[in-house]
């Protein structure tokens, strides 16, 4: 087990390294214009541009910049460890900026993931148990609608109906729970629900399919033959086996949202991590993009690792040598 | 004296009776029989045909019927503050934020969405098929590299990288990579393909791995067939079912991907209408408390399209009897 974890940890580091390298290639080899020009002010002279390029480290080839980035990461910079560098625009700490935005995204993911996991699995179980009834059809109709709907459309419609017309919730923007807990909840309830709906639809479909497949197994017949209640058969014997793939998906989905909740963040103007990265990408403030991508890929890699370890506990058949 | 067995298990896993009283059913015939009974799938197939017709002729036709050119702005359709006005008898879907006819724009939008979704999925299918076949059939280093590459692609924040590429290749007229990637539709399609081929490759690899061990492959090999012949004649035909199903299911995902990119203002150029970019006007101009028509009509078309492809994909999956994966 220890050897397995060590090997996985090593691979995790390789993955994060590759992701950062890909990001570097995309943003530094295919530049959308010259960052120095953007941050040089009006009508810069060639000498001024050279100075700025030198200050931002842009006069070096990309692999030197990459090594420098990695070096700063491990050694730390003047804002401590891990060093994520300085923004082009103001020279302030990327780490401070990323950490300031991270709670917004993390709160969004936390609330939405609870909603989608609970409702998705519940709908899936209900659908499988009441197979081929009206309940099943309605539930699967909902699920199909969920996976076919763009999240930004749902968000805009929710804002229009619930906030603008009915005035039931807060509008766009983010309110810190430290400032006002009710304000926080009333601004988060729509993003949570909208983001959760898409995933709930996927989870409902997957839970239903897995459970139906499991319920056809021999050991389920044995459990029924033993005279167990249907409730016990489904929850103790059926659901446990069908939950393993859902655990995998859940870990990955949550982690991918760290840098991938861009659309929801942008519809509701939450200004979280994804939104920060997109805006910085458009303004060519590359260190910020790298900082967010680094955090996002670490989240995915760690989630991957956790899921694999959790597997051994959920499914006694899995043993790591 | 050995009689042939009274049934045979076909490659798709279906059992076809061979006794004299019951007609023999080929997998193809079973497929059509199942599909014909699936009303939802047939309905969505009809809807998709209609959408394709709209994509081909809807734009020019709507322009001709309403007499409103696509890029023409109408002052009468915005109020004194520049806020667009809703549907009326001349402008059936109302106006967009600059006062253009939303009906005409929505019809033109079908072209972009379908074109990008179908073409990107087609490329992803081709690449995924080749890579997945190679990895699954030959195994070894190709297989290792593929699954590792898949791991890495999975950890990449796709939308961020997509934004990076589209932004880089979209700003200048000459494109990027020495003009290899032109701005506009091309770069959007390339980016979407880049992030979707590995999904198909993984599925093809899985099927190839299990098909490779089947008896009919063994017998072909015993008969002296070359690797290429086995791939082409034995494995590929058995892959067609899953390949068609998952490519159909990839189309709505990619249509939504294009819409998301356009929503972020990075998809197709503004001169070409796209449902995603029409919806993005709602956000960028802060119109979500007024212009319901700007959300409703492009959104409805987008949802009907993705819903139709998803329903058709589900129906094809049941008809081909492909084991569902998620």
Q: Which structural traits does this protein have?
A:
heterodimer, A: 321 residues, mainly alpha, MetI-like fold, B: 326 residues, 2 domains, two-stranded antiparallel sheet, 2 strands, 67% helix, globular
Question: What topology emerges from the helices and strands here?
Answer:
The complex is a heterodimer of chains A (321) and B (326).
Chain A: H1 2-29, H2 35-38, H3 46-56, H4 62-75, H5 94-129, H6 134-148, H7 151-165, H8 181-215, H9 218-225, H10 230-260, H11 262-267, H12 273-282, H13 286-314
Helix pairs in contact in A: 1-13, 5-6, 5-8, 5-10, 5-13, 6-8, 7-8, 8-10, 9-10, 10-13, 12-13
Chain B: E1 7-9, E2 15-17, H1 27-37, H2 39-66, H3 102-138, H4 140-155, H5 158-170, H6 185-212, H7 215-222, H8 227-263, H9 275-284, H10 292-320
Helix pairs in contact in B: 1-10, 2-3, 2-10, 3-4, 3-6, 3-8, 3-10, 4-6, 5-6, 6-8, 7-8, 8-9, 8-10, 9-10
Roughly what fraction of the amino acids of chain A lie in strands? under 5%
Major pleated sheet of chain A: none
Number of helices of chain B: 10
Q: How would you describe the shape of chain A?
A: globular
Query: pLDDT under 50 segments of chain A (min length 5)?
Result: none
